[in-house]
Request: fold
Amino acid sequence: MIKRFKVHNFKNLINLEFRPAVLNLLIGQNNAGKTNLCQALHFFALASRMSLKEAAQQVVGEVWNLTNAYQDNRFIDFELEASIVVDNQTRDFTYLLSLEAETHAVTGLQMLKVANERLTLAVEGGSRTLIGNQFGQAELQDETKAGRETLHARIPEGYSALCKLFDEQAHRLSLIFRQYLAHWAYFNLSPPALRSSRVTGPFPLLTPAGENLGHFLFTLHNQMPALTRSLLGALRRIEPKAEFFAFSHPDPEHLIWFLADRQGRRFGVQHLSDGTLRYLAICCIILGLERAPDFFHPPPLVMLEEPENGLHVNELKPLLNRIDRSGKAGQFVFTSHNQYFIDLFDKDLEGLHLLKPGPVAAEMVQPDPAKVRPLLEDMPLGELHFHELLT
Reply:
């Protein structure tokens, strides 16, 4: 579970610190930095399992203008403090990642490389360094030697040392930490993508836009029938006739899926509304974390942009109520401009985060729950936000 995340010089985020609860909502004006914070978290996680260039392309779609345009600083800094249960014991990790973004004089492309990287584990009386890496010269603790031996390695430029670990015995704790980051997921669900017939994406994760929804449902249907039944049960709130999923496989690269009623009548994805598809995808995310915890251990961070889009207001609260507030299924971060969705967080004020645009950088304000609760007696939370009474 994330205790603290700090990012510096990533787009409009300068020395911004984020302390998430289990259930979190980012609110604020357009271009305040809500999506940038989600992208910073997503990029940070992807950098643990692919090249920095690939991570930037997947998250931002480009490899320029990653640093703040108003800062004469070529370094991007991330810091994470997180607790993970390992062998029934809570272990506290701190991971620092500092990147140098060297801008090409002609093209403007920013070439990313690791300037400094350090993964430490809290132990009695102090901390233990598992990974130390400066500009590709890495020192990796051999955990089989009880911390008495350090391995030296040269890390390829453009990769983190965490990304290049492979020895499951020598680097067991580091790899558990990497597995935690690997499960972090960001979603900005797109109805055209949700209708895609392409066979793509890793199961059991949806891609950020949801273009592998059909492949996900097909794999779920074959491997996890109990979870499929739970998903259909949730879907019947808005599609009462949904009895089962049906599939057609015209070729190895494509899969077409249908909803079918009890008599076997099929309804293709082009006949389903955008809201129904988004509702189904969100149910896949929440129910998957709830019903298949072994796939997602340690429990991840899940970011979902504007989940209310296309959904009837009556469906929003039941979706939120499905989330386990204990954190056993992970932490959730939502963004929203919708007054009714914001209202639903009046019992989760510890997870309310307001981002405000500034001339150079975003500012994050976490309203004091003790001050907000008395105001709720006169006005709902969404209205308090739109009247700027939460600052």
Residues 187-297 form one domain. The mean pLDDT is 94.
